[in-house]
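Obj.: predict assembly geometry.
Materials: sequence records (below).
Method: joint structure prediction, all chains together.
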Amino acid sequence: MNMEKYRINQNEGLEFGLYTLGDHLPNPLTGERISAEQRINEMVEAAKLAEQAGIHFFSVGESHQEYFTTQAHTVVLAAIAQATEKIKIGSSSTIISTSDPVRVYEDFATIDLLSNGRAEIIAGRASRVGLFELLGYDLRNYEELFEEKFELLLQINENEVVNWNGEFRAPLRNAKVLPRPKDGSLPIWRAVGGTPASAIKAGIQGVPMALAMLGGPVSHFKLSIDAYRESLIQAGRDPLDFPVATTGFFYTAETTQQALREYYPHINEGMKYTNGRGFAKQLFAQGADKRSVMLVGSPAEIIEKILYQHEQFGHQRYMAQLEFGGVPFDKVMKNIEIIGNEILPAIKKYTAKK
Amino acid sequence: MKIVGLSGSIVGSKTRTAMNDVAMEIADKYPEVDFRLIDLADFNIQFSDGRNYLDYDGDTAYVTKELMDADAIIIGTPIFQASIPATLKNIFDLLPEKAFQDKVVSIVVTAGSSKHFLIPEQQLKPILSYMKAQVVQSYVFIEEKDFYRREIINDDVSFRIERLVEDTVVLTETYSNIRKAKEEEYGF
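Observations (raw structure tokens):
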């Protein structure tokens, strides 16, 4: 078992991360929206608090449409790199399809050097596609842009000198992509949506997988993780070398009922703004069940669910999305505090090697 | 309550004529309903390319948003080549998978032949069910002989339109009340 390349030490047990898509939405309870300036500064603040709480990872996503504020997510990550010392930092995700992989690599390698080797990339292909027009790409190439550029990104990571030919970027001839990251390479993950088909692609490619889980039963997502590991084996690789991360909605309060009540308006209204449809209350209510992936509940219930998921998935990192849809910062702070004081010690106790 | 009438074809006048009657019936009996009629003939809608409906612009953005914001939708459609017109199917393709969740959808059909009677049953309703609509089971089926120029001349059809509008409004209210009561039970 060797996940060192991806900076995962399994003896430490399941890693816990926080991620933001960088959404910039009104708080549905007050109807008010904080400024973009306050929003991104609060992200940096949240990363500092996460580090103090012992959280392992903090990541920021790239989105270019209205109601988002981290279009320049690498700049926000650089600020976080400066404000923190230990916590691993990354993207969630970087839209590699509409960027030049050379520039993306230069940015993240630089963040890695600024952060003493803590930077990671999770590369995705965008669920909303307004950025194709904004940045001058043709939506018809949605699939191929991602595959080609992601492959190039991986090549740059593996080789200091790159020779490359492709359809969507000028060729590279003995190109040196600099600077190089602190430990020679960066952990680069493939962002995967809800279907096994997408997970299989990550397995064939031989890259770590970050699996998005908005809602639904644990058993559904286990299919994708099993398919991923099976395709790794078929491609001649050892699944024990490749970490899996899962992501999902997270919110904790004293009781599960209180957590549901406090978080639901943010998810429902936030989804309306960002996806055009709310989140059905019936589905959200089912989210409290142990068999559902959503981690909304009392600390004790969340611990039980994380451990159940760990038993089912055998994953290496869980990434929580707790500040979606204008959750006020005092609630974010409270959540981070509970994660640090109650949830992390329990996860460590049950998942770390003794 | 917001109801959108969707006239699903860009050619011919019969579906629009029937939908005008639907509009008049609503204005007459339910003036409190916020009703608007969208006739696809008046809009320039692009083909679906799979993106989220919020990412379209112009007429496509307007029409999809109106439909998504509606509590109920009354679809008017002709039958072409023993099926629904491509223009109407394109509207469905533009919308998210569960676009009609918590919406009541009812159907008015115009057809050149009585042989087409089961086409909405077998081709349109499965799409609406897949997209999670609460479908008003009876639809109004109108044939060529029921029209004289731009008017419906069969009183039976007029009565059926009255009943369809009533069923649509009553079901929308009913489902909305049931949902509200159920959601209050969740306690969050």
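Conclusions so far: Chain B has a mean pLDDT of 97.
To do: check interface contacts against the pulldown list.
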